[in-house]
């Protein structure tokens, strides 16, 4: 929305929420000025360049996640790197083109059984990501060289990260306790033997 419309609405803006299905290839989704149309196989925006400076891209990303949830099992909800990201247009800099470059890494989390420690439970799929951002002010670009808007440009990693969370069985704990106790007993026996031999040597009773 333009800054003039927002000013008339006492600071009100738009709240966008939803989901979309995309191919597992690099792409982008965006909110930009003008009407989006397809011409000669290309997606373009039609708008009046004289109004470009009025398009306010101030925004806050409340939540951004990738990957469809599995309806048969819950997906662990983690806070994404972009959650809470905020950008505000100031009079000194003005509006412009803000691009978030997102690198998505498919992730599979495997949980272990609390008793056996084996990964017998169903894996939890998710998609973790990292991002960098780039902002290009409208006033510093050539006329028509910048489309004011917010772009999320994503790319999928060809690798999959697998995280295994395995609980240690209680028998492993007992084994470690026994090993520690045996080690302490052995060291104590060696120290006692050395003390006994040193006392015997000092009294001239050390056998030949």
UniProtKB/TrEMBL annotation:
Residues spanning the membrane: 173-195
Q: Which residues form the Endoplasmic reticulum vesicle transporter C-terminal domain?
A: 5-192
State the UniProt keywords alphabetically: Membrane, Transmembrane, Transmembrane helix
Query: Per the record's keyword annotation, is RNA-binding included, yes or no?
Result: no
GO annotation, cellular component aspect: COPII-coated ER to Golgi transport vesicle; endoplasmic reticulum
Give the superkingdom in one word. Eukaryota
Q: Which InterPro entries match?
A: Erv, Erv_C
The Swiss-Prot or TrEMBL record describes its family as follows:
Belongs to the ERGIC family.
Name of this protein: Endoplasmic reticulum vesicle transporter C-terminal domain-containing protein
């Amino acid at each position: 929305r333009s800054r003039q419309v927002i000013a008339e609405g006492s600071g009100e803006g738009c709240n966008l929420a939803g989901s979309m299905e995309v191919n597992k290839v690099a792409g982008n989704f965006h909110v930009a000025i003008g009407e989006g149309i397809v011409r000669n196989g290309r997606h373009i925006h039609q708008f009046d360049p004289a109004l470009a400076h009025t398009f306010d891209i101030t925004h806050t990303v409340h939540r951004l996640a990738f990957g469809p949830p599995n309806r048969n099992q819950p997906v662990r909800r983690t806070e994404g790197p972009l959650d809470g990201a905020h950008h505000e247009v100031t009079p000194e800099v003005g509006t412009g083109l803000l691009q978030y470059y997102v690198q998505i890494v498919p992730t599979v989390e495997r949980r272990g059984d609390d008793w056996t420690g084996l990964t017998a439970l169903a894996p939890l799929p998710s998609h973790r990501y990292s991002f960098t951002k780039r902002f290009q002010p409208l006033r510093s670009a050539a006329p028509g060289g910048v489309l004011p808007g917010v772009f999320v440009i994503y790319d999928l990693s060809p690798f999959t990260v697998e995280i295994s969370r395995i609980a240690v069985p209680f028998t492993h704990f007992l084994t470690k306790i026994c090993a520690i106790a045996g080690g302490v007993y052995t060291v104590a026996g060696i120290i006692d033997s050395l003390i006994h031999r040193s006392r015997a040597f000092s009294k001239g009773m050390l056998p030949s």
